[in-house]
Write a structure and sequence with these properties.
Layout (H helix, E strand, L loop, with lengths): L1 E6 L11 H4 L4 H15 L2 E6 L3 H11 L5 E5 L8 H10 L3 E5 L21 E4 L4 H14 L6
Helix pairs in contact: 2-5, 3-4
The protein binds ligand CA2.
């Protein structure tokens, strides 16, 4: 099983700016935590980060031919991007939306997500662990562990 991890705009700044909101871990640290969890789960990962919406849409389309699902932190695109929603729906692979911060407890505009209602699940507010929990949930679901 292979899962793509998608980091949206500005997430490469992690650990270097606004640690009071996003914590001290860098994007490399987040990816290392995911790689370790993936090894324990016996799944393969592919990582992608871009500051450009179109590049993310192209990646989702291309990667959908080789991955079983996506763990996505859409960053600011969460609150704006009908196109990312359309791309994720179009490729027909399950995805989990994850956020480092608890977006429900921040500015009102961060409460709206264009992706949450079509996601397999959403994890908010646990820092890098949000990604790890999202990966676990997605893999469980793909393996059928959550079927009624
Ligand atoms: O909490 C999250 O993971 C967010 O997706 C982060 C986005 C924000 O727009 C969402 O509302 C919630 C911001 C990503 C920018 O990342 C930075 C990291 C460090 C310093 C500055 C920006």
């Amino acid at each position: 099983m292979k899962i793509a991890i998608v980091h949206g705009p500005n997430l490469r700044l992690l650990g270097r700016r606004e640690p009071e909101i996003y914590g001290p871990a860098s994007l490399t640290d987040v990816n290392a935590a995911l790689a370790s969890e993936a090894q324990a789960l016996g799944v393969e990962l592919e990582f992608f980060q871009s500051n450009h919406e179109g590049e993310i849409l192209d990646f989702v389309e291309d990667a959908s031919n080789r991955v079983d699902g996506f763990v996505v932190n859409p960053a600011g695109l969460t609150h704006t991007s009908v196109s990312l929603r359309d791309a994720l729906l179009a490729v027909g692979r399950p995805f989990v939306e994850v956020h480092l911060s608890n977006t429900a407890a921040r500015e009102p505009f961060r409460r709206r997500s264009y992706l949450a209602d079509v996601a397999a699940g959403v994890v908010l507010g646990f820092g890098p662990q949000s990604y790890v929990l999202g990966l676990r949930g997605l893999v469980d679901q793909l393996r059928g562990a959550n079927r009624d």
